[in-house]
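Possible regression after last week's pipeline update?

I re-ran a chain I had predicted before the update to compare outputs. Posting the input and the new output here so someone can diff against the archived version. Not blocking, just want to make sure nothing changed silently.
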Amino acid sequence: MEPLEAFAINVRRLRTERGLTQERLAEIAGLHMTDIARIETLRRNPGVRVVGKIALGLGVPTSQLFTGVELSASPER
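New output (post-update):
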């Protein structure tokens, strides 16, 4: 699974497991609700700071947000 797709799926799963709305997660993470909605629907590619804020808001390490990511071997240079 691609990193952005895995991230979006994990954010939504963890948020719903915790009983949080997009609005409440956004409040906790110091983001706008539309940021969470766009991330969960793959319409926003978040930067490192936003990933960190979401991880803190969900109470998980950032690595947990990327569970399921499979990296393909890059060609040798």
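Follow-up from reviewer: compared with the archived run. The helical segments are 3-17, 22-29, 33-40, 48-58. Marking as no regression found.
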